[in-house]
Design a protein that fits this description.
Shape: elongated
Mean pLDDT: 88
Number of strands: 0
Strand content: under 5%
């Protein structure tokens, strides 16, 4: 396997990781402020897992040598998302303002 393919697989795995873990952060911020938080968390999990699994299916393409670089990129993305969101505000995103009668 060439170094270019390894770098491409690592980058693509990182993109999948950024979608997965970034989507998790977004879901936590939205879900905590929602009345239907269970629906937010369950729906987000289904969507994030579907995107990740389909992405890995096409990245790996039945070649066992492609698994490791893809997973390395995925794990690196986890650390990057944690580092980026660590300093972010933990207050939930406010719901849209509702007009009172």
């Amino acid at each position: 396997m060439s170094i270019n393919l390894i770098l491409l697989l690592t980058f693509a795995g990182g993109a999948l990781g950024a979608i997965f873990f970034g989507g998790l952060w977004w879901t936590v911020r939205r879900g905590v402020a929602s009345r239907a938080s269970g629906l937010w968390f369950f729906g987000s999990l289904q969507i994030r897992m579907a995107i990740t699994l389909v992405g890995f299916y096409f990245l790996i393409g039945g070649d066992a040598e492609r698994v490791f670089p893809s997973l390395v990129g995925f794990v690196i993305a986890r650390f990057v998302v944690v580092a980026v969101t660590k300093g972010a505000s933990l207050t939930p995103v406010p719901a849209q303002k509702r007009e009172t009668l």
